[in-house]
Amino acid sequence: MTKATVVGAGKYGSTTAQRIAEWDLVDEVVMTDIVEGLPQGLALDMNESRPVTGHRTLVIGTNDYAATAGSDVVIITAGLPRKPGMSRMDLLEVNAKIVRSVTTEIVNYSPDAVIIVVTNPLDQMTTLVADVSGFPRNRVFGQAGILDSSRFAHFISEKTGADIQTVKAVTLGSHGPTMVPVPSLCRVGDKPLTEVMDAATIEEIVDRTRKGGAEIVGLLKTGSAYYAPSAAAASMARAVIEDSGAEMPVCAWMTGDYGISDVYLGVVAKIGASGVQGIVQLPLTTDERESLVEAATAVKEKVADLNQIDI
Predict the structure, then answer these.
(1) Backbone φ, ψ for residue 140 (5° rounding)
(2) Which of 17, 28, 34, 189 is the most buried (most CB within 10 A)?
(3) At 121, which helix (H) or strand (E)?
(4) Does the bond joining 181 to the residue before it have cis omega, within 30 degrees of 0?
(5) Are 295 and 265 in contact (CB under 8 A)?
(6) Of the candidates 112, 109, 115, which has an alpha carbon nearest to the alpha carbon of residue 69?
(7) Among candidate residues 72, 70, 22, the one with its CA nearest the CA of residue 46
(8) How would DSSP label each residue in 236-260?
(9) DSSP class of 302
(10) Is 175 a catalytic residue?
(11) pLDDT (tens digit, 9 = 90+) per residue, 264-308?
(12) Cβ-based burial of 93 (10 A; exposed 0-12, middle 13-18, buried ≥19)
């Protein structure tokens, strides 16, 4: 039996579970949460949709990690969003405690799983999961690049009027201010982005991409994005489950590619049953490569904050 677990039954987690189920990727999707009745109710609702959608995957809602035992892939969405008045360090401390606890349970029940981290702050949380789990670094990676690249592609399509399926975009680096969109490798149909837009317009879209999550939060007033993020997380899970070797931008452990080592950073990687199978080095411009190195330095500084909190 193949099994995927989603930790956290909020909108992000539940939508991720729904996508994995509707894609019929596994026999069971287990959705666990600390709120009694929440994952059970959502699972029942999803299961009752199966005759309509035509998928067979069963969703199991639970408050007990024992039900997650033997998972092939685990997606961690648990954690709190940043609230007004909450500093970055406040968020780091709260979510670090949650993620540490979750990781311990995952290791206990699914010692051979691949773990995909989506909890923010993404870079620190991915590092924390790797450290706490003791898993090989290739079996722990984070989600951000697929989401950011998708947002970048949408904004390009919106600006040019091009069919979204003909737009190819990629972002590297970190999730947030040190994100590194790569205009030189973006394409609109058979043309490079740089031939379709002037530099000023590209920079405008790059800036909007970096602030993509905040834009949605500002519009919603309460809550944050989950449709695009869940699609990104589910696509990563699919690459693991299908052992596809699909190339996608993820937060992966660096061991020398681009001259960067010992840090989790957003790069394009091949994803399969063992997690990250290898980093794909892209032909970046000098400026893009320098930005990626700067992002790595910034992430290392942020990860150092983990040592300043008591978890």
Answers:
(1) -130, 120
(2) 17
(3) none
(4) no
(5) yes
(6) 109
(7) 22
(8) HHHHHHTT--EEEEEEEEEESGGG-
(9) H
(10) yes
(11) 999 999 999 999 999 999 999 999 999 999 999 999 998 998 888
(12) middle
The one-letter code for the residue type at 79 is G
Contact 73, 114 (CB under 8 A): yes
DSSP class of 57: P
Nearest to 272 by CA among 17, 72, 66: 72
Q: Which three-class secondary structure string do you get for 191-231?
A: EEHHHHCCHHHHHHHHHHHHCHHHHHHHHHCCCCCCHHHHH
Query: Phi-psi region for residue 305, left (φ > 0), alpha (ψ -120 to 50) or beta?
Result: alpha
Tens-place pLDDT, residues 209-267: 999 988 998 899 888 899 999 999 999 999 999 999 999 999 999 999 999 999 999 99
Identified catalytic residue from 137, 139, 151, 175: 175
Residue that the structure tokens 């695009």 belong to? 228
**Pairing state between β 140-142 and 114-117:** parallel
Strand partners, 180: 172
293 closest CA partner among 268, 258, 267: 258
Cα(60)–Cα(43) distance, integer angstroms? 6
For residue 130, what are the CA distances in angstroms to 18, 22, 134, 277? 26, 29, 6, 16
Q: Which helix (H) or strand (E) holds 32?
A: strand 28-32
Q: CA-to-CA distance for 157 and 151, rounded, in angstroms?
A: 10
